[in-house]
Amino acid sequence: MIPDNDTGAAAAAGPLLRRGPALALFGLAAAAFFAYAQWYGLNTGPERDMGHLQKILYVHVPSAWIAFLSFAVVFLAGVWYLATRSERADELGASAAEVGTLLNGLVLLQGMIWAKPSWGVWWTWDARLSSTLVLFLVFVSYLALRALVDDRERRARWSAVVGILGALGVPVVYMSVRWWRTLHQVQSTPSTMDPAFATGLRLNAFGVLFVGAFLVLLRRRVARMDAAVEAIADERALRGEVDHVG
Amino acid sequence: MSAHPSESGAGEISRILAVAWKDVLMEARSRANFAAVVGFAVLMLVLFGFALGPDSRALAQAAAGVLWLTVIFSSVLAFGRTYQLELEDGALDSLLMYPGDRRSLFLGKVIGALAFVFAVEAIVVPLAGILYGLPVLVALPDLLPIMVLGTIGIVALGTFYAGMASRVRAREVLLPLLLFPMLAPIVIAAVKATDVVLIGDAIAERVNWLGLLAGFDAIFLAAAYLLFGAVVED
Predict the structure, then answer these.
(1) ipTM of the modeled complex
(2) Which residues in B lie closer than 8 A to residue A179 (C-beta atoms)?
């Protein structure tokens, strides 16, 4: 039972919480679009060299693109936070980092599934693969830091810093291994691709983008709720209604 | 902006050196820590030797990687410690209350840690030369700039992340977790450059690894310096 008068933070979370139905609708639309994009991709003919194995590219490549985009958002949110100390910046950064890490993990898994039949190995120390793995580990450590720091303000500040440096390390890792033996093929361009494949890829890129955006928004909503719950607990503890904050 | 002497460039430099000197002095007064870290590094070299087997060609091939991993693992012990000592009795809080740019605290700590790690390397590198059969002394003029640049990169990032990790529960896990992925470019460039010098790796030679290493150092040192204020601000 929460009396009306005690919840500054909970009241601040109100507008976001009321947007629940709109968010659910957006999620449904994103899922439907993604399903359509997958259906389109799966209905393109088999590719000349790779046959139906090529279909994995409709999730592999878009996942990689949107993972990179998410990490760019983490970088920008970090700069935003350090400049303004806005809690919204921190929540955006944390949400984008979680979604980016998820997609990055999927990229690695999908790549391995593709690599075994094509290259004969699950893993090889190729430049692209190694830098993608390092990127994944950088953001796993970002999430570990978030989980281990309890103080909200300090967690936000440190996450911003680690997110900025982590995103900075990515192009550096990528450049540093460019001269290694590189097995991963160079990206195809629309001009070297059958138009049906290019359309399938584009549709799926937007599909993953929409689903990713939905997850980020959903995660932000959860973060708002957490903040509201924490604030309520703090206020009640201050008034002596409970003996300690769990 | 201000003409106050404590905010001038010279004041900043003396502040940086004071922090570095304090850290070096603390290590020098209690030699037990240094001895323990050197002992740990020697142990690493020996265990890697066992793990790789007695084949001397295989040992020479792996030596550069072993050497840099040994440097990294032993430096991590030093990074955590410099902040650990500051946190006892709230020494860090008093340090932060001194006037001037807090980032001079970072540069001071970097210089102090560099002195420590260089001292460890002065013992570990010749020993690695003996154990792994490498022409370390002959190659010293070429090896020295690589060791210096590689160590600067490791120490800059290590000192930066330890500023956070040492104040968190599970710090023993968190510091390597944060630090090691970020060290990837430094490790790659340092190991490749060392390979070129020690065993004349023809494939690695095509890239100017030393130049890359200097570039990574510049990027990470500058970024860590700029962001350090947000790490210690409490």
Answers:
(1) 0.86
(2) 206-207
